[in-house]
Prior knowledge:
The structure holds two protein chains of two kinds. Chain A is built from 26 helices and 25 strands. Chain A is globular. Chain A is α+β, with helices and mostly antiparallel strands. In chain A, the strands form four sheets. In chain A, strands 4, 5, 6, 7, 8, 9, 10, 11 and 12 form a nine-stranded mixed beta sheet that branches. A six-stranded mixed beta barrel of chain A has the order 17-18-23-20-22-21, surrounded by four helices. The model of chain A has no long low-confidence stretch (mean pLDDT 83). By secondary structure, chain B is of the alpha/beta class. In chain B, helix 4 packs parallel to helix 6 (156-169), helix 5 runs antiparallel to helix 6 (156-169) and helix 6 packs parallel to helix 7. The structure holds adenosine-5'-triphosphate and magnesium ion. The site of adenosine-5'-triphosphate (ATP) has 12 residues of chain B, from strand 2 and helix 2.
Amino acid sequence: MLKLALRNLLDKKIRFALTTLSVVIGVTFVVGTFALTDSLRSTFGDLAEDIAGETDLTVRAAQQVGGETDRPTIPDSLLDDVAAIDGVVEASGTVQARNVVIVDGEGNAIRPQGPPALGMNYSSRVFFVIDGRAPDGPGEFVVDATTATGNNLEVGQTYTVNGPVRSQPFELVGIFNFGSPDTNTSLGQTMSVFDNNTAQQFLGFGDRLMEIRVLVDGDVEEVQSAIAALGHEYEVITQETAAAEQSEQFQSVLNVFTSILLVFAFIAVFVSAFIINNTFQIVVTQRVREIGLWRAIGVTPKQVSRSIVVESAVVGLLSTAIGIAVGMAVSVLMRAIIRASGFGLPSGPLVLRPRTVILALVIGLGVTMVASIVPAMRARRITPVAALAHDYRIERSGWRMRVAVGGAVTALGVACLALGMAGVGSAATVLALTGVGALVTFVGINVSSPAIARPVVRVLGRPIQALFGMPGKLARENAARNPRRTASTAGALMIGVTLMATTAVVGASVRNSVSDALTDAVSADYFIRSEGSQFDPATGFPAQVMDDLGDLDILESVVGYRVAFGGMVVGGQSRDLVSADFDAVEEHLDGGVISGSIAAGDPLTGVALHVDPAEDLGLSVGDTLEATFPDNETVTLTVAAIYTDAIIYGNWLVDNALWEQHLSRRDYRFGTAVVAGLDDLAADPQLAQSQAELLERSEIAIAETVAGFPGVIGENRAEFREANEELVNSIFAVITVLLGLSFVIALVGITNTLALSVFERTREIGLLRAVGMTRRQLRRAVRWEAAIVATFGGLMGVVVGMILGVAGSLATPDSFITTVDVPFGTLAIYVVAAALAGLLAAVLPARRAGRMNILDAIAHE
Amino acid sequence: MSDSATVAAPPTHAAARAVAATKIYGSGDTAVRALDAIDVTFEQGQFTAIMGPSGSGKSTLMHCMAGLDRVTEGQVLIGEIDLSTLSERDLTLLRRDNVGFVFQAFNLVPTLTAIENIMLPMDLAGSAGDTDWVDEVVSATGLADRLKHRPSELSGGQQQRVAVARALAGQPQVIFADEPTGNVDLNTGAEILGFIRNAVDEMGQTIVMVTHDAMAASYADRVVFLVDGKIVDELVDPTPERIRAHMNQLGA
Ligand SMILES: Nc1ncnc2c1ncn2[C@@H]1O[C@H](COP(=O)(O)OP(=O)(O)OP(=O)(O)O)[C@@H](O)[C@H]1O
Ligand SMILES: [Mg+2]
């Protein structure tokens, strides 16, 4: 039987290649993802060790609250205490801040995409100067080689640097490699490095430090406990711990990246499974007569199904092998691209872990085998009569059964999805419920969709028939000819379109919700932010910007905002913290205060909070609560106000004064400004003229101020709103593009099915050509058949996606989505895109049909 | 003896002709000379039967004459058109507009109804055809009540009648039929042959039919005998007995 199965594969090379291709794509995705991230991980691990390798012990403030960027500082007097301990050879203090943005020679802010823009103090142990010299003095700095070459920064030139507090010109005195003398391993970060004092002052540390790095001669453990004895507010970590923390930090970024890629790999594999299943179904149908003959000459049903399974095993194994090879190649290519894009990635070995190979096998072989089970079972039911019968059909379950079973499965899937989207259980459970729910839903739809395939396809084909006459009619009839095949082919496409449509609906809803919130709640006239995304918690601009704006007479008031995720612990739980200026914030942004008054709150002990946490904790205005901050201080806060809009204020709002006492970051995430006297003018229509004039003058004044800080943007209301909408759009656009990859796989599926169908209809095609159908007409018929099937898939996808998107949007908490919006235009585009994809997928099969030799086709058995 | 004038006049009465038509399959040692310099003319309004032993080149001749295949040497003409001068596309259009073809089986497109199959060449051309003529053809098939049926819902004989109707519907210059009754029982065969005879007599069609059956060949006006790719004999106004006698004589 093995021989027979192999013979079959070799006989049908194209079919085999196409089946293999769909599996290969899925496996490639998985292997590529893992090989790339494993390689990066090992490289990062080495790098982390390199960086930490120069230090035996690191002293820093112990931290219970907040993230790494909110770690409290230590006094630089500690440096002497540490240095005085026996066994300490060298103790050096470090400071580091984010959002230290260099302005290049053309006045553009150099802001890396993703990695942070760091400011640090100089140490000869990690910064290896390759050009110029080390920084020495208040007006000097050095930068990493990648940043310097990438932005044409020249030693000897003076550049403006935006720090967390202020903006200041520095002379570039040197260029260094980070981490190693030979290659810069800055990993895409920009690094502005100053001497110790300058760094402390410019980065807002005053006379404090972030860490002390210690070199030890003798027993490290002894020194460690001696340093720890200096005070329980300090902690001392070893080289290993430091390296582990560093690499964990790298990895947390990688993990997000890996998860995203794996989600798409999963989708790719899932779509492939549809295609494989479809292919084997068709193959069994095409071989009915041959299998009937086997049965007639004494092959048992078991042997028949076994041969199908063997065939699928060979396909699975081979495509897994190809997938692993291609996946490795892809990961090498990806790494080269990352390196070429100036990411400062050190070279390292390509890592293929056994886990990756096993996973590839499970996916490639497993999915292929599972997908072939049903066709194999169907092949078993073929009787010897099939060899003789003209038009033999394998018995199959009735439509009614199909719809009932499919409906039940779909309902089950939707139920899982609903639970997932309603956020039942932990994040992992939610993800699992959503994933499994989506999967089950698709299977359910696939089971029942053949029941609607014929009528829907007939309707879709009507205009095509009207447009193209006989070729159009043949396209329509052929699309409706085998509803199961049509539904299954369309199903592969449906998955991608569903996901894209869901994304479109959720994206539009988020965009509108953000827009609405901004329209309703915003009374500020101007908005200050740094270039790039204000949704990125790491971005910020110098505090000085808001001070300078505050000095403008034309502005009534300005407010700066800061955010710290987990920046405060209340009731044993980390809380995300927003700070602003209590006295003016309500005039800038209306957070829907329902009781109390934010302006009345004490800047140092007042807090305003959203109704949800207020209800949870049973707090009302005037109540007190204990809050612990990153500097480990616990403060008694008094509730000044309770509000309803979390999009604007977050859940917890304190004054900037309180922040500056307990948190270390000084830059602002965001700022708002209100123009003086504008409201009075607006109240009087007679003064519309002067209102416009005032706006114009204020706009100029703000632009002038902000111009002193390249990379900082001042926007009016319309611009701000537009920027926000664009931001949401671009995030969802990226997701959509990635999801679009499943489109490509579905294309392979359409090509595959069509090629098989064309082969199956060889005789019919010969006949059509014999009675005078031109090649062009024939190709047209094949192409439009594909377009109809693809449109069917696109339509199903859009309908299902719309339902899921609306349900998802409704299930999302109001703090994120308040209005549900269905972007019909976008959805229509997806359907059209599906149709075009179908046309494209049909190019090869159509050409093949056109090339068929008429006489061979007529003689075809 | 005014015959010389007739000879000089263009042969307008020829619906299709082969002139020294040779067809060689393969090359070298394995080359097969399926048609060997055949000269044959099919007159307009005539029903010709082609007979000969298996492998004598009957199907090859049909295919070459109908523009489904090209001869290796010599000429094939439909009316006055020399097929060897036509491009692939023009050949297709010629098949669609000027030639009808009936195969032994699988003559119909399974997704189309009987009437749609009959109208297929005209629909491909985007023309309505001659409605009266089509009506006449359709009523002659005796299948007026089954026109909306798909091929799978028709018997073999009915399917063949639909196939002949399709060949007739476009009023082609000539119709080629390769064993159209090869797959049906005697009665059904008689039915189909009656229909073809009728098309020649009543509708003035030109038909060339390959058959192995002397009974079937006797419906024709003329029988041409083929052996080893050559025309060896011819019989006008045949009867089954005379045909059989000829066949025996040929040793087939
Ligand atoms: N495509 C081909 N390639 C090679 N040889 C061929 C091909 N088609 C036909 N032949 C050969 O040409 C010769 C004539 O074949 P043809 O099919 O015309 O015979 P036929 O008279 O129709 O026979 P039958 O009565 O069996 O249908 C045969 O020897 C056959 O083997
Ligand atoms: Mg033959």
